[in-house]
Amino acid sequence: GKLVIATHNPGKLREIAALVAPLGVEAVGAEELALPEPEEIGNSFADNADLKARSAADLSGLPALADDSGLCVDALHGRPGIFSARWAEDADGNRDWMRAMERVWTEAEATEPDAAPAAHFVCALAIAWPNDGQAETFEGRVDGTLVWPPRGDRGFGYDPMFIPVGHDQTFGELDPEVKHAMSHRADAFGKFLAALREDPLQ
Ligand code: ITT
């Protein structure tokens, strides 16, 4: 059957399409179905993933998988967190990742000048079925440190400034396969797969 990947972010769509490929479902992006972007009014990654999945499932009549994710910096008490995308936006809503990374680095450095700032990515995945009030959510995480200047042009978002624990290259430099094997998204997806084994998609 079909599964809607309820994201308007091409970087996420690429990664989630790769993760769901082995499931044998036909992945369809939210843009392809011209689904609107619901307002992310939740107070947590899980709440926002839940509302994006339910909106896409109800409007498309298909099961929908949504991702809400972000970068949490220890020195910034977990910010930008659920505001990770908003930190990239200018007054017209255009996104500039260099601007977002610069803000993160500047604020982290102002708090802890000499340390390599500790940070982690969080990903909440939510799966929803049409007209079913409940979505199920799964949360994953990867720990690391931040570097400046950003390095590498792979991945998306904050990847060029994030070095995962156990590596010395950023997610922007590492092979996408390496990121997929250890990322916050892969961690959440593993939990989703474990639940699917109990309760399959069809
Ligand atoms: P959708 O809501 O349409 O899925 P979005 O980009 O608005 O797309 P979020 O609200 O979840 O999604 O914002 C998450 C931001 O966190 C995202 O735009 C990235 O900048 C950042 N982020 C999440 N996962 C990341 C990853 O794997 N690598 C780098 N940055 C990531």
Automatic annotation (TrEMBL):
EC number: 3.6.1.66
One GO cellular component term: cytosol
Source species, domain of life: Bacteria
SUPFAM superfamilies the UniProt entry points to: ITPase-like
Keyword Magnesium set for record: yes
Residues annotated as binding Mg(2+): 39, 68
Catalytic reaction equation(s): XTP + H2O = XMP + diphosphate + H(+); ITP + H2O = IMP + diphosphate + H(+); dITP + H2O = dIMP + diphosphate + H(+)
Name of the top EC class for this enzyme: hydrolase
Entry keyword set: Hydrolase, Magnesium, Metal-binding, Nucleotide metabolism, Nucleotide-binding
Positions with a binding annotation for substrate: 7-12, 69, 156-159, 179, 184-185
Molecular function as annotated in GO: dITP diphosphatase activity; ITP diphosphatase activity; metal ion binding; nucleotide binding; ribonucleoside triphosphate phosphatase activity; XTP diphosphatase activity
Cofactor: Mg(2+)
Classification via InterPro entries: dITP/XTP_pyrophosphatase (IPR020922), ITPase-like_fam (IPR029001), RdgB/HAM1 (IPR002637)
Catalytic residue list: 68 (proton acceptor)
UniProt cofactor note: Binds 1 Mg(2+) ion per subunit.
GO biological process: nucleotide metabolic process; purine nucleoside triphosphate catabolic process
NCBIfam families assigned to the protein according to its UniProt record, in alphabetical order: RdgB/HAM1 family non-canonical purine NTP pyrophosphatase (TIGR00042)
PANTHER family xrefs: INOSINE TRIPHOSPHATE PYROPHOSPHATASE, INOSINE TRIPHOSPHATE PYROPHOSPHATASE/HAM1 PROTEIN
Subunit structure: Homodimer.
Functional summary from the UniProt entry: Pyrophosphatase that catalyzes the hydrolysis of nucleoside triphosphates to their monophosphate derivatives, with a high preference for the non-canonical purine nucleotides XTP (xanthosine triphosphate), dITP (deoxyinosine triphosphate) and ITP. Seems to function as a house-cleaning enzyme that removes non-canonical purine nucleotides from the nucleotide pool, thus preventing their incorporation into DNA/RNA and avoiding chromosomal lesions.
Protein family per UniProt: Belongs to the HAM1 NTPase family.
The protein, known as: dITP/XTP pyrophosphatase
Organism: Sphingomonas lutea
